[in-house]
TrEMBL record:
InterPro entries: MeTrfase_D12, SAM-dependent_MTases_sf. This is Modification methylase LlaI. Its EC number is 2.1.1.72. Pfam families: MethyltransfD12. The keyword Protein biosynthesis does not apply. One of its GO terms (molecular function) is site-specific DNA-methyltransferase (adenine-specific) activity. Keywords: Methyltransferase, S-adenosyl-L-methionine, Transferase. The gene is llaIM. It comes from sediment metagenome. GO terms for biological process: DNA restriction-modification system; methylation.
Length: 224
């Protein structure tokens, strides 16, 4: 499934390829096979778990963390990522031979951690069909999200679409038309898409006033 590019000023919902694999990402766009320790180039068209604005993201110090663990512990079979956040550390060490336990108090992080790190089965065709449906410009009504966040971090149009999609995902799950894994993938796709078009220059301490953008959701691969 090819990845669609992110256009300036548009929000695109991205689908992450959730096939369970053990290629881990390294700084400078290299992946690292934890079993053979052979560096490999990553697919530049894939969105990685670390590509989200998040204060305290440890992506830049993954090499240092691994170096310390090697020197102090040497061999290990499990890792507990107590304050997991975006999950970059747990994702980096996740392999066939290492059990990763990730914990975070923030529910949105729990959802994204489940989407990226869980090896539960999901229906890829179902996800693709839903994303194509969500990409249609049919969300024109006000909802909780647009009433509280419209014309702030997101335009009114974007907020209406975000809110409507989020409510529909929850409704599908309540009707047992989605597994929890599939729900997690869809919400994670929405979170990462929202992050790319938020009216802010960095983290979410403040928003840019009078910023208008258009929300368009597209399918994109999510690498696990």
């Amino acid at each position: 499934m090819s990845t669609k590019s992110i256009l300036h000023g548009q929000l695109k919902m991205e689908f992450y390829d959730t096939s369970y694999n053990f290629n881990k990402y390294m700084p400078e766009s290299h992946s690292f096979d934890l079993l053979s320790r052979t560096p490999k180039k990553t697919n530049q068209n894939l969105i990685d778990i670390h590509q989200r604005r998040y204060l305290g993201n440890k992506y830049s110090v993954l090499n240092l963390i691994e170096h310390i663990i090697k020197n102090e512990i040497s061999e290990y079979k499990s890792i507990c990522d107590i304050f997991a956040g975006t999950g970059t550390v747990g994702n980096y060490f996740n392999s066939k031979n290492v059990e990763v336990v990730s914990n975070d108090l923030l529910y949105s992080n729990y959802i994204t951690l489940n989407a990226f790190l869980s090896d539960e089965h999901y229906d890829e065709n179902k996800i693709e069909e839903l994303l194509e449906y969500f990409n249609q410009d049919i969300y024109a009504y006000d909802n909780y999200f647009s009433k509280h966040f419209g014309d702030k971090y997101y335009s009114i149009e974007n907020s209406r679409k975000i809110g409507a999609i989020r409510e529909e995902i929850e409704e599908l799950f309540a009707q047992k038309k989605l597994t929890f894994k599939e729900k997690s993938i869809l919400i994670t796709s929405l979170i990462y898409a929202m992050d790319k078009i938020a009216n802010t220059v960095g983290h979410y301490d403040a928003y840019i006033k009078k910023e208008n953008k258009t929300i368009i959701f597209k399918i994109k691969e999510i690498e696990y």
